[in-house]
Amino acid sequence: MFIPLYDTNRLRHIRLQYVTISLIAVNTLIYLATSLGGEAFSNAAVLGLGFIPSVVHDRVELAPQFVVIPESLSYLTYSFLHADIFHLGGNMLFLWVFGDNVEDALGHIRYLIFYLACAIAGAFFQGLVAWDSQVPLIGASGAIAGVVAAYLILYPRVKVWVLAFARIPLRIPAFIPLILWILFQIVMFAAGGEDQISWACHIGGIIAGAVLVLVLRRRGVQLLRGDDEAVAVMEQTPVSAGPVANDPPAAQPAPRWGRGSTASPD
Predict the structure, then answer these.
(1) Whole-prediction pTM
(2) In degrees rounded to 5, what are phi and psi of residue 256?
(3) Bridge-partner residues for 170, per DSSP?
(4) What's residue 192's pLDDT?
(5) From 227's CA, which of 37, 42, 45, 117 has a CA 20 to 30 Å away?
(6) What stretches in the chain show pLDDT beneath 50?
(7) Distances in Å between the alpha carbon of 184 and those of 35, 51, 180, 252?
(8) Which percentage of the chain shows pLDDT scores above 70?
(9) Rounded to whole angstroms, how far apart are CA atoms 95 and 91?
(10) How far apart are CA 75 and CA 207, in angstroms?
């Protein structure tokens, strides 16, 4: 439907999105490790670290050679595995464009908790709707869906550059592509679309992200923010029209553009 490219949303509370960058790096390194290990190693990683509802729910027993972690940990480990470079690239692009500002609004530690919780919620919801499924669930899509939902609630009016239909560059308010993306997930889940995509995982991540951002955001962080340009104009200190006759002119405060970029601790 659309490919996000860039947003005009500066960081306000942190100097650098350390957690977002680290998550992208870890996902990339794990993908390279599993890919370079060969097909057999990659398949073993998917079976051993992917989320398999029937295994987690004790309906099916995993072969001993694939048991590398406690089954409950697969609620999390699945989200660091990807099927191919396009699967990885799409998820990491969404995380790069939208994750930094969600991290800024929550703080580093709470953002990491938020991300992992959305991943767990995605697997949990997938397990609910496909209780006996023996198909491994992999990919960061559940966590990314939570990030998208949080960004929509925090910054719906910020301008973002997107490629509509992967061809047409547009600069539009974030709520347009993000609402369309979320509606698409809901429609596909309800219609039972494409078996290779876990729409239920996306829905679980969206719900978790929408709820958790309200709880974990920094104190004073507003919801439904607009773009930086509008904020700057609204916050400019007014200047008086001029001095009163026969009175000495009073010193005028300098206009204040923006709110600065001083970092605050978590």
Answers:
(1) 0.82
(2) -110, 110
(3) 162
(4) 79
(5) 117
(6) 229-266
(7) 30, 24, 6, 52
(8) 83
(9) 6
(10) 16
